[in-house]
Amino acid sequence: MKHIPPIPLLLAFDAVARLRSFHRAAEELSVAHSTVSHRIRELEQLCGVALFARTTRTVTPTPEAERLLGPVRQALATLGEAFGPPRDARTVRVSLLPSFARFRVVPALAEFQRNHPQIAIALDPTSQMIVPRHGEADIALRFARAKPVEPHLDLGHDEWFPVAAPSYLATLSQRALPRLFGEAMLLSHSRHGWEPWFREAGLPMPRSHRVTTFTDTGLMLDAAMRGQGIAYGRRSLLLHLLKSGQLVRLSPVSLSSAHSYYLMASERIETSPEVRVVHAWIRALVGEAS
Fold first, then answer.
1. Per the database record, which ranges form the HTH lysR-type domain (predicted)?
2. Residues 211, 188 contacting (CB under 8 angstroms)
3. DSSP class of residue 105?
4. Which residues pair with 139 in a beta bridge?
5. Any bridge partners for residue 219, and if so which?
6. Which end of the chain has less Cβ packing within 10 Å, N or C?
7. 149 CB-contact burial (10 Å; exposed 0-12 / middle 13-18 / buried 19+)
8. Shortest CA distance to 140 belongs to which of 45, 236, 266, 264?
9. Per-residue pLDDT at 1 exceeds 60
10. Residues 168, 171: Cα–Cα separation, whole Å
11. What does the alpha-carbon distance between residue 10 and residue 4 come to, in Å, rounded to a whole number?
12. Angle formed by the axes of helices 33-47 and 7-19, to 10°?
């Protein structure tokens, strides 16, 4: 037992190897960048080998690290199962972004439960990178720029375009583009500004534009539905809002997202019919908006 490294060192090792980034590993573990660096150095000293080849832009596991990753991840998964809460075999734990949970999964949940009353779903809306094979979830849906290292299904890109509530458009004196944008309040996500869409549409960015910026997609769409401005929305989240007429699309021009949806699953998918059913359902929800 004396040769087993402290668990925080192993968690840092797994996160850096998986994310290929000390910065992203620190964000996932909710610790400082320097803490992750210190833990990796300490683990390298214990192992007597270098675990990562570092450059200014990349972090790559060494052959020694690749040899250790499998056993380390299996051990972490076993610990997660051992110390996690007792779980009903019929319960499927699903980790996904809060926005997708709210605008796509919850509206479809009642129908799923009617069709599959024997399956219980435990939803975990989070923006953290959850790894099902570590025992943190049975299924995880991520919307990311980089492909996960873990086995996954690539469900494709999304696209962005402007939407607004009909009640808000009725308050504007200008109805035609681009003048409408010059009068309106623009609602934007902090990581996805309007400028790329205006370039794609061949429209000038309004000189005196007013923008309210959100770090949460759900809040931005809430503001749009409440008639507070024009939102820069993502197709996969807008399907039911557009069908119901709560929001309307303002232009046929869309901008392809640099991010894609990736669907991952734990080993339970091989033995659990319930996990396979939920996995197929989540996959269909993403594909429905394609």
1. 5-62
2. yes
3. I
4. 94, 265
5. none
6. N
7. middle
8. 264
9. no
10. 5
11. 10
12. 110
Q: Is 62 exposed, middle or buried (0-12, 13-18, 19+ CB in 10 A)?
A: middle
Domain end: 61, 83, 105, which one?
83
Is residue 46 within 8 A of residue 13, CB to CB? The reply is: no
Going by pLDDT thresholds of 50, 70 and 90, the confidence category of residue 157 is confident
Based on the fold, state whether residues 286 and 228 are members of the same structural domain: yes
Alpha carbon distance 61, 54 (integer Å): 9
Contacts for 156 with CB less than 8 Å, ≥ 6 apart: 260, 261, 286, 290
Contacts of 132 (CB under 8 A, 6+ apart): 95, 138, 139, 140, 150, 264, 265, 266
For the cut 90, the answer to whether the pLDDT of residue 263 exceeds it is: yes
pTM: 0.70
AA letter at 179: R
My answer on whether 44 and 155 are in the same domain is no
Q: Are 105 and 123 in contact (CB under 8 A)?
A: yes
Query: Would the pLDDT of 4 be above 90?
Result: no
- Rounded CA-CA distance 286/74 in Å is 30
Contacts of 30 (CB under 8 A, 6+ apart): none
